[in-house]
Amino acid sequence: MLVVTTLAILLTSIDRQLLPTVLPAIMKDFNLTEVQAGWLNSLNFIGTFVGAMLFGVLADVFGKGYRRSWTWVAAIGVAVAAGIGTFFSRTLGSLQIWRVIMGVGTGGSEPVNVAIIGEWWQKENRGFAVGVHHTGFPFGQFLGPVLMGAIIAVATWREAFVWIPLLGVPIMLAQVMIGTKRNQEKVYGWIRENNMTVPIEEDDSNKLENPFKLMKIALSNRNVASSVAMIFLFLWAEAGVATFMTLHLTERVGLSLAEAAVISGASGLTGWIGQAFWGTLSDHLGRKFSLRIIGLGWTVSVLACIFIDSAVSGWFILIIWGLFRNSPFPVTYALLIDSTPKAAASSMGLMIGIALGLSGFLVAPVAGYFIQTWGWTANYMMLAFACVLAFIPMAMLKETVVRQDN
């Protein structure tokens, strides 16, 4: 299940790289400015907001554990259909519609996927499991642009939108075959035999829950509210960097689109290290301790993007960023599963919907305006300031891990 959910996150990551990676080509085809391109990217996050909230709640309503598999399959099915629809789009209007639908699928799949792995591993090692599974994001951030660069080299940006989402079909089949009641019972039996704590009781997995009750649980929890604010700011910075990195490398550095696409995903080379390390460390030294170090690394890395003026400096700075880029998310996911076990997917859907959806919708046109009006340096300074602000809600989090020395 860890392998399958990691591949699922890998697919989500690659899907989210599609538009930013080929954005220069789309801008050329449709004669778009930086601000217009930013708004096009924002449409994906409108769908993310809807999808994360909708599928997150549905995953809790129809049951926990193995029963979440079908909700995840439905969300990925939406993303696959949107990719194919984008391929056949010939007008800006149709492209915009399919971007929203793609966001519904990718936004809906993530909270369900995280909840699945959180409920197939013992509580004692939850941070490790979520962290390892989340290595799919940095791997996708590197592998996605490489695949897209290869496709662009022999075809057009449209082919990337049809071939990449189809990778989800075998993952969907694997999820259905492995995520069964029988396999879950085997896992829980092993957990009990080794004197550890099962994530949920089996008789809880079959109940249909009241969606309004689930949202009330999520909305009333302090850690959920603080996490939404904190992750919003981290994602504001991430989207501001990632959306225009290929444009930075082509326009400011002078690289080809294919080469810029590969370098833009360099953070994925080291991202898996940060995911596994910080998730595991948070199991032992606490979620807040890990988040403070990650926040500092984020701030310095985003500021360092100011100095990307060659292929070599691009590789170096983005590889350093990879040690921190995706790390806040698995640690925060583990925190939310700890905090709201009865509404885990709803809480994560709320965080992803508001934090990712709202930040992604707003930051692209804002960053595009900063670049167009004041230049790249001003843009990275604005994004780094968002990382500094993230320490405020971070301080309000209530620790969920009891350290062994306490």
UniProtKB/TrEMBL annotation:
It comes from the Bacteria. Coiled coil: none annotated. Keywords: Cell membrane, Membrane, Transmembrane, Transmembrane helix, Transport. GO terms for molecular function: transmembrane transporter activity. SUPFAM superfamilies: MFS general substrate transporter. It is found in: Cell membrane. Residues 1-402 form the Major facilitator superfamily (MFS) profile domain. Pfam families: MFS_1 (PF07690). The chain crosses the membrane at residues 40-62, 69-88, 128-154, 160-178, 224-247, 253-277, 289-309, 315-336, 348-371, 377-397. It is a multi-pass membrane protein. GO terms for cellular component: plasma membrane. This is MFS transporter.
